[in-house]
C-alpha cells in the first residue's frame, strides 16, 4: 500500500491535466454513495416512481440536496471523463500503455450504460421518450427488446429491471476501475514529453497536494450547483410526468450523449444510424493498437497534433448540433461532420511517416 500511495514514483513533468483521473474517481465514488442513499427512498413502480422523486425533494430532510447532488454529479463525472480522455488522446497515453487505454474505454462504456439507465429512473417525460427511442434501436435483434423491457414497450417491468441494473453496475464498475489502476501503476503515468523518463518524484506530498487542491475545487463546484443551481443541466420537460400520449416537441438526451445523438439523427436509416453510433465509440479501441499502425515520433509532429486539435473541435460541434432541432440544415451539418469524424480518425490512426 505504501508503494502505491506514498512512495509511488510519478514523472516530474506531469501537470494538472493528470489530476483529472483522480477527480473522475472521486466523482464516481460520490455517485455510488449518494446512489445508495437515493435507493433507500426510490420505488421502481410505474405509478409511483415520478411522485417518489418529488416526495424525496419536498418531504425528506436534505432530500433535495441528495437528489441534485446525484443528478448533477452525473454531469461532473462525464465532464471529468471527457477531459481525461481528451488529455490521453492529445498526449498519446494510448501509445504509452495500451492496456490502460483498453480498460479506460471499457470504463467509458460502463459509465454511458449506467448514466442512460439512471436517466430513465425518474420517469419524467424526457426519460420515458429517451428510453423509447433507444430501446427501439434494438428492434432488429429478435426478442431483445422484449427481454430488456419485459414487453414490447417501456413499462413497469422495464423500470424494475433498469433500477436493478443501475444499482448493480456501479459495483462492477469498481472492479474495472481497480484493473485500470493496476495497469496504470504497472508502467507509471505518461508525461507531457510523451516519452519515458527517469525523472521521478514520490506521489506524497507532491502529487497528493495537487489532488487535494482538485478535490476542494470539485466539492465547491458540487456545492454551487446543488445549492445555487448555477446551470440547468437537465431538460425542463423531464420535470413533467411521463405520458405515452404526449410526445415532446424535441426529444433530446443529456448533454454528454449529444455527440452520439447527433450522429444518430444524421443517418436516415435507423439500423445504419445505430451502427454508426456504436462504431463511433468502438473506434476508440483502435488507438490502443496505434503502436502497430504508426511510429511514436509522429506524436510530436505538428500536422499530427493539428489533426487531433481538429478532432476536439469536431466533438464540440457535435455537442452543439445534437442539441438543435432536427431541421434539414442541422442534419446536413451532422452528416458532413460524421464523415469528417471518421476521416480524422483515419488520419490519426493510419498516418505514415514521410521518407526523407
UniProtKB/TrEMBL annotation:
<feature type="transmembrane region" description="Helical">
    <location>
        <begin position="127"/>
        <end position="150"/>
    </location>
</feature>
<keyword id="KW-1133">Transmembrane helix</keyword>
<comment type="function">
    <text>Component of the ubiquinol-cytochrome c reductase complex (complex III or cytochrome b-c1 complex) that is part of the mitochondrial respiratory chain. The b-c1 complex mediates electron transfer from ubiquinol to cytochrome c. Contributes to the generation of a proton gradient across the mitochondrial membrane that is then used for ATP synthesis.</text>
</comment>
<feature type="transmembrane region" description="Helical">
    <location>
        <begin position="20"/>
        <end position="42"/>
    </location>
</feature>
<dbReference type="InterPro" id="IPR027387">
    <property type="entry name" value="Cytb/b6-like_sf"/>
</dbReference>
<protein>
    <recommendedName>
        <fullName>Cytochrome b</fullName>
    </recommendedName>
</protein>
<dbReference type="GO" id="GO:0005743">
    <property type="term" value="C:mitochondrial inner membrane"/>
</dbReference>
<dbReference type="GO" id="GO:0006122">
    <property type="term" value="P:mitochondrial electron transport, ubiquinol to cytochrome c"/>
</dbReference>
<keyword id="KW-0812">Transmembrane</keyword>
<dbReference type="InterPro" id="IPR036150">
    <property type="entry name" value="Cyt_b/b6_C_sf"/>
</dbReference>
<feature type="transmembrane region" description="Helical">
    <location>
        <begin position="309"/>
        <end position="326"/>
    </location>
</feature>
<feature type="transmembrane region" description="Helical">
    <location>
        <begin position="203"/>
        <end position="224"/>
    </location>
</feature>
<feature type="transmembrane region" description="Helical">
    <location>
        <begin position="68"/>
        <end position="89"/>
    </location>
</feature>
<dbReference type="InterPro" id="IPR005797">
    <property type="entry name" value="Cyt_b/b6_N"/>
</dbReference>
<dbReference type="GO" id="GO:0016491">
    <property type="term" value="F:oxidoreductase activity"/>
</dbReference>
<keyword id="KW-0679">Respiratory chain</keyword>
<feature type="transmembrane region" description="Helical">
    <location>
        <begin position="101"/>
        <end position="121"/>
    </location>
</feature>
<feature type="transmembrane region" description="Helical">
    <location>
        <begin position="332"/>
        <end position="350"/>
    </location>
</feature>
<dbReference type="GO" id="GO:0046872">
    <property type="term" value="F:metal ion binding"/>
</dbReference>
<keyword id="KW-0472">Membrane</keyword>
<dbReference type="Pfam" id="PF00033">
    <property type="entry name" value="Cytochrome_B"/>
</dbReference>
<keyword id="KW-0496">Mitochondrion</keyword>
<dbReference type="GO" id="GO:0008121">
    <property type="term" value="F:quinol-cytochrome-c reductase activity"/>
</dbReference>
<keyword id="KW-0249">Electron transport</keyword>
<keyword id="KW-0999">Mitochondrion inner membrane</keyword>
<keyword id="KW-0408">Iron</keyword>
<dbReference type="Pfam" id="PF00032">
    <property type="entry name" value="Cytochrom_B_C"/>
</dbReference>
<keyword id="KW-0479">Metal-binding</keyword>
<keyword id="KW-0349">Heme</keyword>
<dbReference type="InterPro" id="IPR048259">
    <property type="entry name" value="Cytochrome_b_N_euk/bac"/>
</dbReference>
<feature type="domain" description="Cytochrome b/b6 N-terminal region profile">
    <location>
        <begin position="1"/>
        <end position="193"/>
    </location>
</feature>
<feature type="domain" description="Cytochrome b/b6 C-terminal region profile">
    <location>
        <begin position="193"/>
        <end position="356"/>
    </location>
</feature>
<comment type="similarity">
    <text>Belongs to the cytochrome b family.</text>
</comment>
<dbReference type="InterPro" id="IPR005798">
    <property type="entry name" value="Cyt_b/b6_C"/>
</dbReference>
<feature type="transmembrane region" description="Helical">
    <location>
        <begin position="270"/>
        <end position="288"/>
    </location>
</feature>
<feature type="transmembrane region" description="Helical">
    <location>
        <begin position="162"/>
        <end position="183"/>
    </location>
</feature>
<keyword id="KW-0813">Transport</keyword>
<dbReference type="InterPro" id="IPR016174">
    <property type="entry name" value="Di-haem_cyt_TM"/>
</dbReference>
Amino acid at each position: 500500500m505504501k508503494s502505491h500511495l506514498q512512495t509511488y514514483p510519478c514523472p516530474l513533468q506531469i501537470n494538472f491535466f493528470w489530476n483529472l483521473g483522480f477527480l473522475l474517481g472521486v466523482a464516481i465514488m460520490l455517485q455510488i454513495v449518494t446512489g445508495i442513499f437515493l435507493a433507500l427512498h426510490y420505488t421502481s413502480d410505474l405509478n409511483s416512481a415520478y411522485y417518489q422523486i418529488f416526495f424525496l425533494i419536498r418531504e425528506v430532510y436534505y432530500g433535495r440536496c441528495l437528489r441534485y447532488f446525484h443528478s448533477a454529479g452525473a454531469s461532473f463525472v462525464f465532464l471529468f471523463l471527457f477531459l481525461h480522455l481528451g488529455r490521453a488522446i492529445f498526449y498519446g497515453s494510448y501509445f504509452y500503455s495500451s492496456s490502460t487505454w483498453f480498460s479506460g474505454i471499457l470504463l467509458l462504456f460502463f459509465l454511458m450504460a449506467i448514466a442512460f439507465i439512471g436517466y430513465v429512473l425518474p420517469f419524467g417525460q424526457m426519460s420515458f421518450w429517451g428510453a423509447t427511442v433507444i430501446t427501439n434501436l434494438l428492434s432488429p435483434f429478435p426478442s431483445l427488446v422484449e427481454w430488456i423491457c419485459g414487453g414490447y414497450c417501456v413499462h413497469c417491468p422495464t423500470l424494475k429491471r433498469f433500477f436493478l441494473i443501475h444499482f448493480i453496475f456501479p459495483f462492477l464498475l469498481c472492479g474495472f476501475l481497480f484493473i485500470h489502476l493496476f495497469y496504470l501503476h504497472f508502467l507509471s503515468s505518461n508525461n507531457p514529453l510523451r516519452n519515458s523518463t527517469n525523472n521521478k518524484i514520490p506521489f506524497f506530498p507532491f502529487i497528493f497536494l495537487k489532488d487535494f487542491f482538485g478535490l476542494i475545487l470539485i466539492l465547491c463546484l458540487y456545492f454551487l450547483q446543488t445549492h445555487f443551481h448555477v446551470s440547468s443541466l437537465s431538460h425542463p420537460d423531464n420535470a413533467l410526468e411521463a405520458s405515452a400520449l404526449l410526445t415532446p416537441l424535441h426529444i433530446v438526451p443529456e448533454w454528454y450523449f449529444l455527440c452520439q445523438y447527433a450522429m444518430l439523427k444524421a443517418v436516415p436509416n435507423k439500423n445504419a444510424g445505430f451502427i454508426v453510433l456504436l462504431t463511433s465509440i468502438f473506434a476508440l479501441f483502435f488507438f490502443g493498437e496505434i503502436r502497430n499502425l504508426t511510429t511514436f515520433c509522429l506524436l510530436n509532429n505538428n500536422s499530427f497534433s493539428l489533426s487531433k486539435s481538429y478532432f476536439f473541435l469536431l466533438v464540440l460541434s457535435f455537442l452543439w448540433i445534437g442539441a438543435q432541432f432536427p431541421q434539414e440544415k442541422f442534419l446536413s451539418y451532422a452528416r458532413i461532420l460524421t464523415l469528417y469524424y471518421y476521416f480524422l480518425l483515419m488520419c490519426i490512426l493510419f498516418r505514415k511517416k514521410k521518407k526523407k
